[in-house]
Design goal:
Blueprint: H1 2-8, H2 14-17, H3 40-49, E1 51-57, H4 61-75, E2 82-90, H5 96-100, E3 105-114, H6 127-135, H7 139-148, H8 151-154, H9 156-159, H10 161-183, E4 184-192, H11 197-200, E5 211-212, E6 220-221, H12 231-241, E7 245-250, E8 268-272, E9 281-286, H13 297-313, E10 318-323, H14 326-333
Parallel strand pairs: 9-10
Antiparallel strand pairs: 1-4, 2-3, 5-6, 7-8, 8-9
Helix pairs in contact: 4-7, 4-10, 6-7, 6-10, 10-13
Length: 335
């Protein structure tokens, strides 16, 4: 991790700041649960959401095959392998700064050509097996999809086999993700999350950059992103200042909802004062932009699964949505 951060610092000076700390500080700080966790409002919310779930998905393979074929025919584009040649003359005199920045040549020209005789033809690919593995589908289903796509799309495999495989997997998974939401159902299973999940993970971020909260179940709230006024940081500040909010928690990544496209971890659990809003218990996701077209289909599917669990299937009082500000959240809970 240290080497990775050091490499990143070449492009972003702010990365270096997190690599150096005050040597006199205690190496590991604790961020224990505080008295807000014991509030009856949070305990009531926690009892509603700390269940564990299993999902079932039933859909017609033929429907997926048809949708995947149409999606691949429409969207698949595989670039041919290319190489770029740079020609220039080295300067007679140069300094260290120019060498470091790659400015030691003058009159540089570049020429990009398509690789006509790539050696990929000598490499044996289990095309069906690779795609089946990546899309988590049977070889029979993948075979039917590849047989159904246009011949010109299938021939793109020769252009760039690795890119063809990765893009076909992604396009199939996008269609699978949309179908999952239509056909998924959830059941509670044995076991519950306990309070230790909030303190089990030791945060590596600096406490100096964390938000010192009054209404959170831990004194410090660590938000995503390096920006001091990130979406999450602003959201936490607004929760803390809102008169309607009684108590809230930044949920750890170990708190998750299973979905067929990967586990999904929502960001926040919030309890409002009774009588101030219609929905007093809320689980929220905060994103920089909530326009559906801006989110990847896989991410859309995870959020849609959470909506289906909390808003349609669950008998609890909890509601869920994805928002980009506290103002948007308030507009939802007062309706």
């Amino acid at each position: 991790d240290g080497i990775h951060s050091l490499i990143q610092s070449v492009y972003d000076d702010s990365i270096l700041e997190s690599m150096f700390t005050n040597g006199h500080e205690t190496k590991v700080k604790e961020n224990p649960l505080n008295e807000n966790f014991a509030k009856k409002e949070f305990q009531a919310l926690w009892r509603e959401i700390n269940h564990k779930y299993a999902y079932t998905v039933k859909f017609d393979s033929n429907e997926l095959i048809k949708k995947a074929i149409a999606h691949i025919d429409d969207k698949l584009c595989v670039s041919e392998l290319q190489y770029t040649t740079t020609i220039g003359r080295q300067k007679a005199e140069m300094n260290e700064y120019e060498i470091e920045r790659g400015e030691s040549f003058t009159g540089e020209k570049t020429r990009t050509k398509t690789l006509k005789h790539a050696e990929t033809s000598q490499i044996k690919y289990d095309l069906i097996g690779k795609i089946a593995e990546g899309a988590v589908l049977t070889r029979k289903t993948i075979s039917a999809i590849l047989q159904g796509i246009r011949i010109d799309k299938l021939y793109m495999f020769k252009n760039n086999p690795e890119e063809f495989i990765s893009k076909v997997i992604r396009l199939i998974n996008e269609q699978k993700a949309t179908m999952i939401v239509e056909h998924i159902s959830y059941d509670t299973i044995e076991g519950e999350y306990d309070s230790t999940i909030f303190t089990a993970e030791k945060n590596t971020q600096s406490f100096d950059k964390a938000f010192l909260a009054k209404k959170a179940i831990q004194d410090y709230v660590f938000t995503d992103g390096s920006a001091e006024k990130s979406i999450e940081r602003k959201f936490a500040e607004d929760l803390d200042a809102a008169e309607e909010v009684c108590v809230y928690a930044k949920l750890p990544r170990t708190f998750h909802i299973p979905t067929p496209v990967g586990n999904y971890s929502p960001d926040w659990a919030i309890a409002f004062y009774e009588g101030t809003v219609k929905h007093i218990f809320f689980v929220a996701e905060t994103k920089g932009t909530m326009e559906s077209l801006e989110l990847r289909p896989i991410e859309q599917a995870k959020i849609s699964c959470a909506k289906k669990l909390f808003n349609e299937m669950s008998t609890s009082k909890v509601r869920y949505d994805a928002v980009d500000s506290y103002k948007e959240l308030l507009n939802i809970v007062i309706k």
